[in-house]
């Protein structure tokens, strides 16, 4: 049976690839973007199978209105893809308050509004699947990315809790953590060139050069392949809570988690001391 999708951030990048893959196999999609004009080509190709909707996910009322419109148009919703977002790049010292608030308004609060708007429909129909686009940046942290990391780490916790809250309603949750993908002119996007940049301080110029060199060595994934992988996830009867897309950060993630476990183990005696007076049986 064909599925009905609701996808934010459908104008380009991975979001666009997800929409095209779903439509190409006969599914229907409520595709949203800040400008509905960016979706004209989809309408020309797939006709009534796609419902183009203008949406700024930071507008809570608009999110609820748009979700309701998609539900009324198609009759039900099967897959909700929280994809809209962007990267804020800059050292913590360089970030302005407004830049950080804007980052969270889009990446975090926008996702919350979409989830809250979708859940009543999914609960009423007894199921559905929420796909949260996170990032490898949601499980590891690097210099110059704190603003982006904050938003993605928050999404990881948000959707982990969500999965536990909604499982009894038959609703599934999957957090997708992509590495770098060639979403701009066939190239792996350089976050130091394509992200939203804080005002740079000369104090961090050396660090910027080192990070740019490291990021340039990461392999670029194919968005079309990522879209086919996502189709397998939404068709699975037992989809994963978390999944990495691409191998660029797999070894880094493994090492980060191993280091965390070792640090906690190395300092376990101090952890016990911090607990205070414990009886022997609790030690």
Tell me about this structure.
The chain is α/β, with parallel strands linked by helices and 283 residues long. It folds into two domains: 4-248, NAD(P)-binding Rossmann-like Domain (Rossmann fold), CATH 3.40.50.720; 251-283, no CATH class. Helices cover 49% and strands 14% of the residues. The chain is built from ten helices and nine strands. It has a seven-stranded parallel sheet with strand order 3-2-1-4-6-7-9, with helices on both faces. Strands 5-8 form a two-stranded parallel sheet. Strand 6, helix 5 and strand 7 (171-178) form a beta-alpha-beta unit. Helix 3 runs parallel beside helix 4. The radius of gyration is 20 Å and the shape is globular. It starts with a strand and ends in an 8-residue tail after the last helix. Residues 184-193 have low confidence and may be disordered.
Can you lay out the helices and strands and say which pair or pack?
Layout: E1 4-7, H1 13-24, E2 28-33, H2 40-46, E3 50-54, H3 60-74, E4 79-82, E5 88-89, H4 97-125, E6 128-133, H5 146-166, E7 171-178, H6 191-194, E8 196-197, H7 205-216, H8 223-235, E9 242-245, H9 250-266, H10 268-275
Parallel strand pairs: 1-2, 1-4, 2-3, 4-6, 5-8, 6-7, 7-9
Helix pairs in contact: 1-8, 3-4, 4-5
């Amino acid at each position: 049976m064909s599925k009905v999708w609701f996808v934010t951030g459908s104008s380009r990048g991975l979001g666009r690839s997800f929409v095209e893959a779903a439509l190409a196999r006969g599914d229907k999609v409520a595709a949203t973007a800040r400008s509905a004009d960016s979706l004209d080509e989809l309408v020309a190709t797939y006709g009534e199978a796609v419902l183009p909707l203008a949406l700024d996910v930071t507008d809570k009322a608009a999110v609820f209105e748009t979700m309701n419109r998609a539900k009324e148009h198609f009759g039900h919703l099967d897959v909700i893809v929280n994809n809209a977002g962007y990267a804020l790049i800059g050292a913590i010292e360089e970030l302005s308050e407004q830049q950080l608030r804007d980052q969270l308004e889009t990446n975090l609060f926008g996702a919350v509004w979409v989830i809250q708007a979708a859940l009543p429909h999914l609960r009423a129909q007894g199921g559905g699947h929420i796909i949260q686009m996170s990032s490898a940046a949601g499980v590891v942290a690097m210099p110059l990315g704190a603003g982006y990391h904050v938003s993605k780490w928050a999404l990881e916790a948000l959707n982990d809790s969500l999965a536990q809250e909604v499982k009894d309603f038959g609703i599934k949750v999957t957090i997708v953590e992509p590495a770098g993908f060639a979403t701009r002119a066939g190239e792996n996007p350089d976050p130091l060139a394509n992200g939203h940049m804080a005002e740079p301080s000369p104090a961090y110029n050396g660090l910027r050069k080192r990070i740019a060199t490291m990021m340039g060595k990461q392999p670029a994934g194919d968005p079309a392949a990522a879209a086919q992988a996502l189709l397998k996830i939404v068709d699975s009867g037992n989809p994963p809570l978390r999944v990495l897309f691409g191998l660029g950060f797999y070894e880094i993630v493994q090492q980060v988690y191993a280091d965390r476990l070792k640090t906690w183990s190395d300092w376990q005696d101090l952890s016990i001391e911090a607990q205070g007076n414990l009886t022997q049986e609790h030690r």
